[in-house]
């Protein structure tokens, strides 16, 4: 169950009603807005929201839609390169590092300080397949969470 404290700071809120938007039941932006309005907790004094005019007439595929279904994150890569042949190690490592938006994210993710998104996991698996490595990438652990 998502709580108000779980919503990232500066997250976009969407106040479209279920009648106005067919996606409001499963959209994280709409869920965040419902939590905000229904909560008895201290509320932020300033929030960012999707334009109410857009929210009342959302297009078929809203560009702001974010699915509220939990996803499986990986944590840690301490043994990721154990099955990589030594002659390919340097090249595979460089390509895996490129799967992250910056080098620092690679190091944080490797140590388990940052969760590895499903998209990043798939990119790493693709690097392994393209290198001809039959073993799937091994992450230290997995956990379910919300992809805000």
From TrEMBL:
Q: Which Pfam families match?
A: DUF6078
Taxonomic source organism: Candidatus Bacteroides merdigallinarum
**What is this protein's record name?**
Uncharacterized protein
């Amino acid at each position: 169950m998502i709580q108000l404290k779980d919503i990232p700071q500066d997250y976009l809120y969407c106040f479209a009603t279920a009648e106005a938007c067919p996606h409001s039941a499963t959209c994280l932006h709409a869920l965040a807005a419902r939590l905000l309005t229904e909560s008895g907790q201290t509320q932020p004094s300033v929030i960012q929201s999707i334009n109410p005019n857009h929210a009342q007439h959302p297009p078929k595929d809203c560009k702001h839609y974010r699915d509220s279904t939990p996803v499986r994150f990986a944590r840690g890569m301490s043994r990721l390169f154990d099955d990589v042949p030594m002659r390919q190690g340097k090249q595979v490592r460089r390509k895996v590092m490129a799967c992250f938006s910056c080098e620092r994210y690679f190091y944080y993710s490797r140590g388990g300080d940052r969760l590895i998104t499903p998209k990043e996991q798939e990119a790493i698996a693709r690097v392994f397949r393209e290198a001809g490595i039959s073993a799937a990438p091994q992450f230290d652990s997995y956990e379910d969470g919300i992809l805000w």
